[in-house]
């Protein structure tokens, strides 16, 4: 074979190898991307399965890469989801109902926990709901805590003023007397009770039937495109939920580390939650009720049309996890 032909064969072989290498790299990148989920985590025990799975290695055991991005509120996490910055967002039921109404592409893909510990905590001298008439109740407006307070007041026929207080400012607001009572979710509720040092009044509220649902949401096309990763993610959360239900020390420690809360406080708070991963069909009716409430108080634009929430529940990843 002539020298020129040898050079030609060598060049062709090199080109083929380069093309094969590029294809392999592209395939690896695509595979890696489909197996990776970016999750917007509201730093709150309501979604305790995430830090437990992350620190306990459950995500690795189930073959999914999870990048956790922390958020202070569900509203912020939902905004990141709507902006395409995360694949999955965590948020409570009230802000989720509004986000689903405004964004047709969003789906609820899991209900991570339920909590029935909502209550109103008041300063000394306020014995019951009737004593709250004309008083100020601090709460993050438009949230599950605000919904609970409004429902409790309505059930008792009491008129009080709900004022905006951020979760992180609750203890200061109640301690300084800026508000007369607060309605807030955990762990801030426990912190308020602690700062009042035994003088606070946990007001007896007639049954409102309210259970806070801590949800996982995603865009429909993302859930379909990354279906395998979603199944693995929820399988890992199911494992973590079992550890939380069993009150395993390692699970409590993982949540305490992730939330920067005292270990004893976290252990107490976690016992108030049902961490069974599910997505019951009757959640749709609950979301409809919450959206109607938000519209009536202008937390949701009245011009946003009603939503068929049943069509927004996608349990496919749970069924196969």
What does this structure look like?
With 321 residues, this protein is α/β, with parallel strands linked by helices. It folds into two domains: 183 residues, 3-Layer(aba) Sandwich (D-Maltodextrin-Binding Protein, domain 2); 83 residues, Periplasmic binding protein-like II (D-Maltodextrin-Binding Protein, domain 2, 3-Layer(aba) Sandwich), CATH 3.40.190. Helix content is 48%, strand content 17%. The protein contains 14 helices and eleven strands. A six-stranded mixed sheet has the order 2-1-3-10-4-11, with helices on both faces. The chain starts with a helix and ends with a helix. The N terminus is likely disordered. Belongs to the bacterial solute-binding protein SsuA/TauA family. Keywords: Signal.
């Amino acid at each position: 074979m002539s020298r020129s032909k040898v050079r030609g064969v060598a060049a062709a072989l090199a080109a083929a190898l380069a093309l094969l290498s590029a294809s392999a790299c592209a395939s690896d990148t695509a595979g890696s991307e489909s197996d990776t989920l970016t999750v917007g985590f509201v730093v709150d025990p309501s979604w305790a399965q995430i830090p437990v799975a992350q620190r306990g290695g459950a995500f690795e055991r189930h073959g999914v890469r999870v990048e956790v991005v922390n958020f202070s509120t569900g509203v912020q996490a939902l905004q990141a989801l709507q902006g395409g910055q995360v694949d999955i967002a965590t948020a409570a039921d009230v802000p989720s109902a509004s986000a689903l109404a405004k964004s047709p592409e969003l789906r609820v893909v899991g209900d991570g926990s339920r909590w029935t510990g909502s209550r109103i905590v008041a300063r000394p001298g306020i014995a019951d709901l009737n004593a709250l008439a004309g008083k100020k109740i601090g709460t993050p407006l438009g949230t599950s805590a605000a919904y609970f307070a409004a429902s409790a007041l309505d059930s008792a026929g009491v008129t009080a003023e709900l004022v905006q207080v951020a979760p992180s400012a609750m203890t200061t607001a109640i301690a300084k007397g800026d508000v007369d009572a607060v309605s807030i979710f955990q762990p801030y509720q426990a912190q308020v009770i602690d700062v009042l040092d035994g003088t606070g009044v946990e007001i007896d509220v007639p049954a409102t039937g309210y259970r806070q649902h801590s949800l996982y949401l995603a865009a429909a096309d993302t859930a379909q495109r990354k279906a395998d990763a979603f199944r693995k993610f929820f399988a890992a959360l199911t494992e973590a939920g079992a550890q939380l239900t069993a009150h395993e020390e390692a699970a409590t420690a993982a949540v305490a580390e992730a939330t920067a809360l005292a270990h004893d406080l976290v252990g107490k708070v976690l016992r108030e939650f049902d961490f069974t991963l599910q997505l019951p069909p009757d959640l749709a009716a609950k979301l409809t009720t919450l959206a109607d409430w938000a519209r009536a108080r202008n937390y949701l634009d009245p011009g946003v049309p009603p939503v068929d929430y049943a069509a927004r529940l996608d349990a496919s990843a749970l069924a196969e996890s």
